[in-house]
Amino acid sequence: MSGLVLLVLLLLASYLGSTALGSGKRPGLATGVEWLATGFILGPSMLAVVASDVVEPMHPVALAAIGWLALVTGLDYQRELRLRPFVVAGLAALATGGAVAAVVYFLVPHLLPDVTPRVRLVESGALGVACAETTRHAVRWVVARHRTSEPGGLVPGATIAAAIERGTSAAAIVPLLGLGVLFAIAPANGTRVALGAPSWMGVTAILGIALGLVAAALLGRQLRVREAWTVLLGVSLLAIGLAARVGQSAMSVAFFVGLALAAVSPHRHRLRKMTEATERIALLPVLLLAGAMLQWPDRKRLFALLALSAAVIVARTLVHAVLALVLARLWSQARRNVPLLALSFSSTGALSVCAALACTLAYPKVIGADVLFVVTVVVLVGEAAGPNALRLFLRRVGELDAAPEAVTS
Amino acid sequence: MSETPELPSAAAAAAPEPSVIAGGHGGAPRDLKMRLLQAVVLVLFVVLYLLSTRLAPEPPGALGVVTAVGFLLLAATLTSELLENLGLPHLTGYLAAGIIAGPHVMKLIPESTVKHLTQVNALALALIALAGGAELKLTVLAKARRSLAWSTLTQNTLVLVVVTGAFVALRAFLPFTHDLATSALLGVALLWGGLAVSRSPSATLGILAQTRAKGLVATATLAQVMSSDVVVLVLMAVILTIARPMIDPSLSFSTDSFGELGHAILGSVAIGTTLGLLLIVYLKLVGRALVVLLVALGFVASEILDYLGFEPLLAFLVAGFVVQNLSAQGEKFLAAIEEMGSIVYVVFFATAGAHLDLPLVQQLWPMAVALCAVRMVATVVASRVASRLADDPPAVRTWGWSGLVSQAGVTLGLSALVERAFPSFGPPFRSLALATVALNEVVGPICFKMALDRTGESEH
Predict the structure, then answer these.
(1) Rounded Cα–Cα distance for residues A10 and A16 (Å)
(2) Domains of chain A, with CATH numbers?
(3) CA distance A14 to B89
(4) A159, A258, B253, B335: which is deepest, by most CB within 10 A?
């Protein structure tokens, strides 16, 4: 049986599994980390049910899927953009990413002495980008589970939950643009033209925006749904492929495509609706493949990477603590629950894994392996702490009914 | 990356929705401005792609496939839209885009990438067979049974005999037959005749999906083409059994292959029925994530069926037929296939175009044209005879042949079978088959679309 068949079979099992396990609105764990774990357990590093020669031909699928997810994020991005949450969340994500990158840049020579200066730079940048976000999946998961009028649901006018939701959504721009900057500084592929980082960043933005505008023009005034799918898929794959070919960030280009489409197409609402349903379909293979591509390091490197992961988590938590203090000034109810609020921001998930996977595909050797490993640890820790802290926080500030919950994570 | 609905907000109040057409076609025809825009964008995409191949090397591994799929999707769609003005079917546009972008003309998409892209064939063929089966309604078939029976009989005898005869007559122009004895030549000609009666379900469904045609010609062609899949498998097995001792006198006549064929056909029907019943249960109980299910069916079930020696095409055909005729889920199932197929078919046919061996067609074109012409004439005559015997309505009598000209995957599969079975003349035989399929693949869809337009069965 070919690798492709095995992998498709695995994906089908995952979809059916997630459907069967799901009770109600939101199946599975908040960050989807269970699929990452499934991929790892079945992958070459553990049981080798899915061998590495099976995983490698699936790289185009992974690249297309992460690019598509970025495009959908771009399409959805301007829906509820408000200036204050955008600025606060953007600065917070920037600070988180910056802190992580700085910590990694400082620690790498001590923990991993064999790395070159370029690897050190790219690795710290990649981890900064991948660990900048607080996944809006986790926040939405908690919110979605409790937004009904049943006992245990959100109370009417839950402003803090709404603000956190909006903020974490707005912060997605930081890793998506951050990847663009990282790849512009250190292009993954050699090209026949030598451009500086600002020029490459310009290429990324112009390519994405131009293709988004072309897609909007092709869709025209009268939307033919099937043609729209062809145009959307075609443009996104072309954008993703071209970016990968010149060593730039496919996710950033696709994000710009989505942004441009949402900005100018009269069909933006319809396009959002159409693409919303595809997110889970694209996300599952990403998580499974990321898990399968995760390499278990040797003993010495394992300890080094675990130490690096711990440092990243501490850096993130410190920035989140500062953010919680700032937010506590704005939300009087939160003043007594600053530690819980800080912990609420610890979940990372789909976007982090996508960013790590993008780095793994672009820089396949040491950098990719290290980044994916550290991000996985951060996601796992975030899964354990984030959703529970958020739930408790919302309950304490009176935005979540105190009645027992029907579903727990 | 949202999976769940957002918190209620004022922004959720959607702006007025511009006009939306659920299908891919219909609505007001594209105006001149839009056509110009499409032409300009097509040129832009070609320039962009060309530029990227010149500026940067092919990305490592199979990553180049992503760009190629994106480019083919856009280029093929735009080409088909532009050719629509000339009355040509979309399928011709997809093929043209593939041929032009492929390794023999503009060389935008290298041979290695085309090879990677052919992985989509399994999925496309599964969708085609499932849709083909689901399009066959028992009530319609019952009404058309007389016409179908006569058509099957005349097409499979007259076309077989005439094309076999033509092959023998053209012997002087076919170098690989020069050294063959008369009986061997007859055997090879019979094999060629067997190939000639095969049709293209993919082209038929591609045109029907584009035109959304409903009517006598559409139904009769669909029934004929889909049933011909089964008939041609049986016929080819019979011909192989007869031709083998004619070509190689050291071999004796053996009926073993009939047993194997019976096993394959009965097994495929049984598996197809089971698959169909399972699909009904899934559609009733779950009914979601049909895209994932279809992808799994296309890749996994095809491979497993192939591995077990069954006919995936036949099994999927039966599965689709079961879903349509034994449940109320047929339309839902068809809609899901059509939605997914509208993208998969573009890549499938564009890849087929890119895969076309143009130098070979160039080399063999005089013989290929002659053999195609003979086949086409025989098909038209057989169709007229069958229509007269079955007392078909005038539309079918005039245009019943039009959907039977196309050839594609099934024919290529059969020619590969012949190549494997007879290594002595197999390679040139297959090359000639490839050249004729290339011609029929281009001419056939144009004929069928013209027929559907002329009879007024096309939706627009």
Answers:
(1) 10
(2) 3-20+28-396 (1.20.1530)
(3) 39
(4) A258
Where helices occur in A146-220 by DSSP H, the ranges are 159-170, 173-185, 197-219
Q: Tokens in use for B392?
A: 């078909």
CA dihedral A402, A404, A407, B4 (to 10 degrees): -20
A195 touches chain B (CB under 8 A): no
Which amino acid type is present at position B17?
Answer: E
CB contact under 8 Å between B34 and A220, yes or no, is: yes
- Host H or E run for residue A224: strand A223-224
Spell out the per-residue pLDDT of chain B, length 460, in tens: 543 333 333 333 344 445 555 544 444 566 788 889 999 999 999 999 998 888 887 766 677 889 999 999 999 999 988 988 887 788 888 888 998 999 888 888 888 888 888 778 788 888 888 887 887 888 878 878 888 899 999 999 999 999 999 999 998 888 888 888 898 999 999 999 999 998 888 788 888 888 888 888 998 898 888 888 778 877 887 888 888 888 887 777 667 767 777 888 889 899 999 999 999 999 998 877 788 888 888 888 888 888 888 878 788 989 999 999 999 998 889 888 888 888 888 888 888 888 777 777 777 788 889 999 999 999 999 999 999 999 999 999 999 999 999 887 778 778 877 877 888 888 788 878 878 888 888 899 999 999 999 999 987 6
Distance CA B260, CA B255 (A): 9
What token pair was written down for A154? Answer: 């959100």
Residue showing tokens 């609905």: B5
Q: How far is the C-alpha of B188 from the C-alpha of B173, rounded, in Å?
A: 15
Please check whether the domain covering B120-454 is classified as CATH 1.20.1530.20. Answer: yes
Q: What is the largest CA-CA distance in chain B?
A: 84
DSSP state of B59: P
Hey, is the C-beta of B287 within 8 angstroms of any chain A C-beta?
Answer: no
Classified as helix, coil or strand, A71 is: helix
Q: What is the 3-state secondary structure of B184-228?
A: HHHHHHHHHHHHHCCCCHHHHHHHHHHHCCCCHHHHHHHHHHHHH
Window 330-349 of B, Cβ < 8 Å to A: 338-339, 342-343, 346
Q: Which ranges in B58-144 belong to alpha helices (H)? A: 64-84, 90-101, 111-117, 120-135, 138-143
Nearest-CA distance from A267 to chain B in Å?
6
Dist CA B372 CA B164 (whole Å): 12
**CA torsion angle for A133, A138, A144, A146 (degrees, to 10)?**
-120
Domain boundaries, chain B: 30-117, 120-454
Amino acid at B292: V
The rounded distance, in Å, linking the Cα atoms of B83 and B91 is: 10
Compute the distance between CA of residue A271 and CA of residue A232 in angstroms, rounded to an integer: 9
Interatomic CA distance for residues A268 and A261, integer angstroms: 7
Choose the mutation target among A5, A80, A390 for the interface with B, i.e. most B CBs under 10 Å.
A5
Structure tokens at A386: 């984030």
Do A46 and A296 meet the contact criterion of CB atoms below 8 Å apart?
yes
Residues in B touching A169 (Cβ below 8 Å): 2, 6
Sequence-separated (6 or more) residues with CB below 8 Å from residue B15: A269
Please give the Cα distance from A279 to A68 (Å, whole number): 8
Among residues B271, B250, B131, the alpha carbon closest in space to that of B201 is found at B131
- Find the helix or strand (DSSP H, E) in which A250 lies: helix A250-264
